[in-house]
Q: What sequence folds into this?
């Protein structure tokens, strides 16, 4: 299963708006995507409540993983999204 480890660039981490944007993108990815925080908790990336429950702050590293056809492309898009400050967009 392909995965990417990314530092979260949003100034407040994955809270509120950034978490919503990320979850929406994960839901549209066309493959199941998970996100894991540094403590090892894994949730469905398409679930905003799951993403919020991870408590990811600015600069924290997360690992996103996907399985299925198109997983690498989906992970590339999601990794780029996490690498931007979504609070300023």
A:
């Amino acid at each position: 299963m392909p995965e990417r480890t990314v530092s979260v660039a949003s100034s407040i981490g994955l809270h509120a708006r950034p978490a919503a944007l990320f979850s929406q993108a994960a839901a549209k990815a066309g493959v199941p995507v998970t996100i894991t925080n540094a403590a090892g908790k894994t949730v469905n990336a398409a679930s905003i409540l799951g993403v919020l429950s991870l408590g990811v702050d600015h600069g924290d590293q997360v690992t996103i993983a996907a399985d299925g056809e198109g997983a690498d492309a989906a992970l590339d898009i999601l990794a780029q999204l996490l690498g931007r400050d979504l609070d300023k967009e």
